[in-house]
Write a structure and sequence with these properties.
Strand content: 5-15%
Shape: globular
Number of helices: 5
Strand order of the largest sheet: 1-2
Radius of gyration: 17 Å
Largest sheet: 2 strands, antiparallel
Order of helices and strands: HEEHHEEHH
Distance between the termini: 31 Å
Number of strands: 4
Structural class: mainly alpha
Length: 216
């Protein structure tokens, strides 16, 4: 096995090792955040939701609850805005710092997710996928991804999907490491700082070598 063929195995080994290390390092922060959720808002500490993963297989994603109980019954495609009244005061802090996503390290260890990859969406979103967008499901979903470190909600949805498909076509362990490093910048500086500054230049469906790939 060589070249591209070794990348999936290397990616999985990296996921397991890195998520175990991150869990150990972040455990005090995770416990403190869980206590904050419990003490400031009635309801469960964790938010569990079914999301489509690799090949459309449904799994249960773990997050710290940042919204008022019952708010998860959202209209299809409705995103949570910065000043969304459904988000609790503690939830705003957790969402801004991405601490609410830390329980997904357990999803990574279980093999439902990877550290890097297309972010998993709600099941209802699949109804709007075309054949090209559905290629997002050809890889494990990620805790963070190319779209998330290139502007995320500051980008049109179609552009985020295009970045996800680009990632599927070009994934590598080195790209994952670059995504994770920039994720630190996103946490510290915010998503808007990276709008218009993509981590890679997809060039309307062309990769960096000039080869063409189908557009969305």
């Amino acid at each position: 096995m060589s070249g591209r063929g070794i990348q999936p195995a290397a990616k999985r080994l990296f996921d397991v090792a890195a998520s175990l290390l991150l869990l150990a390092l972040c455990l005090p922060l995770l416990l403190a955040a869980a206590a904050l959720v419990k003490l400031t808002s009635p309801g469960p500490v964790l938010f569990l939701q079914e999301r489509p993963g690799l090949g459309g297989r449904v799994f249960r994603i773990y997050k710290l609850r940042t919204m008022r109980t019952g708010s998860e019954r959202m209209v299809k495609g409705q995103e949570v805005g910065r000043d969304d009244p459904r988000v609790t005061p503690a939830g705003r802090l957790l969402r801004r710092t991405k601490v609410d996503e830390l329980p997904q390290l357990l999803n990574v260890l279980k093999g439902d997710m990877s550290l890097g990859g297309p972010r998993p969406e709600r099941r209802a979103s699949l109804e709007d996928y075309d054949a090209e967008t559905a290629r997002r499901l050809d890889m494990l979903p990620g805790m963070t991804g190319l779209a998330q470190v290139s502007g995320n909600i500051c980008l049109p949805l179609e552009e985020r999907y295009r970045l996800d498909v680009y990632y599927v076509d070009h994934f590598s362990l080195s790209l994952d490491i670059r995504i994770l490093l920039r994720t630190v910048g996103v946490v510290l500086l915010g998503e808007g700082r990276y709008a218009g500054r993509p981590l890679v230049h997809t060039g309307e469906g062309a990769d960096q070598s000039g080869a063409r790939h189908p557009g969305p």
